[in-house]
Amino acid sequence: MSSNDAATAAGEGRLDLALFGATGFTGALTAEYLARRAAAGESLGPGQEGPLRWAIAGRNRDKLEALRRRLEEEVPGSPLPEILVASVDDADSLRALTGACRVLLTTVGPYARFGEGVVAACVETGTHYADITGEPDFVSTLRDRYDAAAREKGLRLVSCCGFDSIPHDLGALLAVRQLPADQKIDLRGFVRAKGGMSGGTWRSAVNAMAETPIFGKKSGKKKRARERSPAPSEGERRVRRGSQKVYREKLFGEWVMPLPTIDPQVVRRSARELPDYGPDFRYGHFLRIGSLPRMAVVSGTIGSVFALSKLPPARKWLLSLKDSGDGPTEEQRARSRFSVTFLGRAGDGSRTVVEVRGGDPGYDETSKMLAETGLSLAFDGDRLPQQAGTLTPAVALGGCLLERLREAGLVFEVVETKGPGEDA
Q1: What sign does the dihedral 123-372-258-422 (CA atoms) show?
Q2: Which of 20, 119, 215, 252 is 20 to 30 A removed from 154 (C-alpha atoms)?
C-alpha cells in the first residue's frame, strides 16, 4: 500500500490531525500556531477540504479545556479543536486517540520514556506520525521495531521535526542540490544559536546525557543501529562522517568545534536514502564558538553537566533546577535566534554556501516546524515523496516542507554557488 493509499483509507471520518501534549510548553505554542494558520483563510494544502478538523490531546481535560478557551479568545475565527483525553500509561486511550486522526503530532517527552506507546498505536491504527525528539536511541528503537510495519501499511513515521533536526536536514538537502549529483561531496554545517530552554527540554537533555556512555562508547549492535538506514545504499554510494576536529573556519574567521547532537546522524540517514548527495558523501557538524577562551568555557560547562548527570544525587539536583512546565517568556523568545551555514564542496571543484535562519529555535520555530510537518502530512498528498516507514524530514517531506517553511518565515537561502575553476 502506498503512503497516499494509506492516507485515503485512513481519512474517512477522521480528524485531519491531533496534537498530543498540547498543554505543555511547546505543545501550547504549536496549538496556537495551528489555530492561527487555520484562521488565516488560506489553503492549508492541496488536499484540504473545508476548515481544519483537528484536536488537542493530553491527560488532563481541565487543562485542555482551558487551552481551547484561550485559543477561542486569542484567535477568533479559527475552527476550535476537539478535545481528546489520552495517557501514555493507557494503551487503549492511545489507540482511541490515534484512531481518531489521520496525523498525530506529539510533544510528549522524554520520548525514550513516553514515546514508544504512541508510535505503536499509530502503526496499529494506520496514522501518520511526527515528533520533535532529539534522542538518538529512541529514533533507533523506532527503526528497529516499527519500520517494516510502517512500510507495509504505507505510513510515514517522521522523527526530529523541530530544531532537532529540520533546519539541518533540509538545509543539507538544499545545499547538495546546488552541487553535481555525480561527484563526491563534502558538506559541513555550522550552527549558531541563542535561546532559552524549557523545563521539559532541560529534563530530556539531562536524562539523555545520563544514558550516554562515557567516551561515547556503545555496543557494536547499538552503534550500528543508530547509523543504519532502513534501506541499503544504492550501488557503490558511500555516506561517512566528516571532520571531527576543532579548527578555525576561514568562511567566518572563527573557531568551530564538533557538535555531537542527533542532527548529523539525521543528515547522513537522508543521504543514504536519496541520490542527491552524490556517490561519496561526508558530513561534519559544528558549533560556531568564535574565540578559543569562549570554547573553553562552553566545553567546560557541557562537560560539567555531563559528569553530574552520571551521579543519581547530582542528576536529581540538575532536574530540580527547572520545572517541567517552565519555559522562556515571550520577550526572551523574541530575542532568540539561530543560523546554520552549510559549506559544500564537490569533487570537481564546485562549491556552495547555504544558510538557514530563524527566530527562537527551541520553541517558536520548533512549534512552527512541527505544525507545518503535520499540515504537510495531512494535505500535501501526491506532492510528497513516495516513501513510507520511519523517515527523516528530508526523505518524508523534502521540498514540500521546505516550501512551507519558507512561506512561514524561515529563511533557506543559497548564498553562493560556484562551478569548477571559479574563484572560491
Answers
A1: positive
A2: 20
Q: Coil, strand or helix: which one is 317? A: helix
Round to whole Å and give the CA distance between 215 and 209. Answer: 12
Task: Report long-range pairs for 300-309 (Cβ below 8 Å, ≥24 apart).
Answer: 305/206, 305/209, 306/209, 306/212, 309/206, 309/207, 309/209, 309/210
Q: Which among 91, 76, 77, 81 has a CA at the least distance from the CA of 27?
A: 81
Q: What pLDDT score was predicted for residue 12?
A: 58
130-159 pLDDT, tens digit each: 999 988 999 999 999 999 999 999 999 999
For cell 520520548, the residue is 111
Beta carbons within 10 angstroms of residue 13's beta carbon: 6
Strand partners, 255: 248, 290
Torsion 384-120-224-168 (CA) sign:
positive
Q: Please report the pLDDT score of residue 220 as a whole number.
A: 46
Q: How high is the pLDDT of residue 300?
A: 78
Residue 3 pLDDT > 50: no
| pLDDT given at position 201 | 59
CB 75 within 8 A of CB 32: yes
Q: Is residue 185 within a helix (H) or strand (E), and if so which, with residue range?
A: strand 185-194
Distance CA 176, CA 48 (A): 32
C-alpha cell at 411: 529563511
| Rounded CA separation 416/371 (Å) | 30
Q: Can you give the pTM of this predicted structure?
A: 0.89
**Please, are residues 102 and 17 in contact by the beta-carbon 8 Å criterion?**
yes
What digits encode the pLDDT tens for the residues 356-371?
A: 999 999 899 999 999 9
CB-based contact 103:128 (threshold 8 Å): yes
**78-90 as b/e: b if 16+ CB within 10 A:** bbbbbbbebbbee
Q: How far apart are the first and last CA of the chain?
A: 47
Q: Which string of DSSP letters, residue by residue, matches 388-414?
A: -EEE-HHHHTHHHHHHHHHHTT-EEEE
pLDDT in tens, 273-324: 999 999 999 999 999 998 778 877 877 777 787 788 888 888 888 878 776 6
